[in-house]
Amino acid sequence: MADERVESQGFFEMLWDCDHCETKGLLAKSQRHCAECGAKQNPDKRYFPKEGDAVQRVDGHQYEGSDRQCPNCAAALSAKAHNCTNCGAPLDGAPGYEVKGVAAPVKPAKPKRRWWPPVAIILVVIGLVFGVWYACIRTRSVKMKVTAHKWTCTIGIEKFGDVEGETWRESVPRDARGTRCHPKQKSTRQVPDGEICHDERVDKKDGTFEVVRKCKPKYHSEPVDGDWCTYTRRDWKQVDQIATSGTGTTIGCPTKNLPPTKVDEQVGATRQGRKQEVRTLVLGSESCELASDPKWRGYADGSDVKVEVRATSGGIVCSSL
């Protein structure tokens, strides 16, 4: 993403209102004194023009002009001015002052919303969460007797032959055959689409302000297509499985009617595939599958085991074993 672009839109005069004669809209840079009564400008009370007036530069203000000349400082003044806006004659020579910055005006606050609707919604959500926890998640500790150990051992049977697959063109295996591809959206990309700009007014603390335009690039998403391909290649594929099951802690995996584990890759050849063992611990009418063989064997038949069960349903929380 590109950085924010900053561009000056020019400098404009701020405004001030006279505290003494209530003349309003005086120019803060060129009119240091009130054109009606000659009172000195109070820099702490400068303000920004309204939004609609901010784009108007200082030219043509009602107290600007050259209809007459100040006898004290020779400043050119409008015929409408009663006192010099430059020196405020005869009030010239007032002590200096510290200029305070004026913050840009903020947008009016939105009307306050009533507080109770969101609070009511939050309370309802809390009630629902508590209800779900109380009915479905809450647990209690109980002792249960181990009644049996059960096991299942499964060995897959794989056959070498044609296997179909699909992937993006760049990932198609080198030994693939009969590759067929079609366009498909793969991702998206961000494309520049103009700018989003806003103007800020910065008090220069000398009676003027600068309009600064700040712009950030705007983007829109466009789809990026790729080639999605289907293909055929020679590989091993599970076509069957042989399983045994029983009780006790001694697992007896299948040994009969099994093909060899290592064979040449020839079409139609078979071999032993992945072996999978499932260990189940039976506690009363409930049961849990345990991945750890030592843990499974560690619970003796007939022993009492402390477990967590759902408070409502009574189902065992197997992770507590």
Task: Please provide a written account of the structure.
By secondary structure, this protein is mainly beta. The protein folds into 2 domains: 10-105, no CATH class; 150-320, no CATH class. 9% of the residues lie in helices and 43% in strands. It contains 2 helices and 11 strands. The strands form 3 sheets. Strands 1, 6, 7, 8, 9, 10 and 11 form a 7-stranded antiparallel β-sheet that branches. A two-stranded antiparallel sheet has the order 2-3. Strand 9 (270-283) and strand 10 form a beta hairpin. The chain is elongated, with a radius of gyration of 43 Å. 12% of the residues are buried. The model is unreliable at 90-99 (pLDDT under 50).
Helices, strands, pairings?
Layout: E1 5-13, E2 15-16, E3 26-27, E4 68-69, E5 76-77, H1 116-137, E6 139-168, E7 177-203, E8 208-247, E9 270-283, E10 286-289, H2 293-298, E11 304-310
Please give the number of β-strands: 11
Q: Can you tell me the number of structural domains?
A: 2
Q: List unreliable stretches of 5+ residues.
A: 90-99
The percentage of residues in β strands lies in 35-45%
Largest sheet: 7 strands, antiparallel
List SSEs in N-to-C order.
EEEEEHEEEEEHE
Structural class: mainly beta
- Gyration radius (Cα, Å) is 43 Å
Helix content: under 10%
User: How far from one another are the termini?
Assistant: 52 Å
Envelope shape: elongated
Number of helices: 2
Mean pLDDT over all positions? 84
Multimerization status: single chain
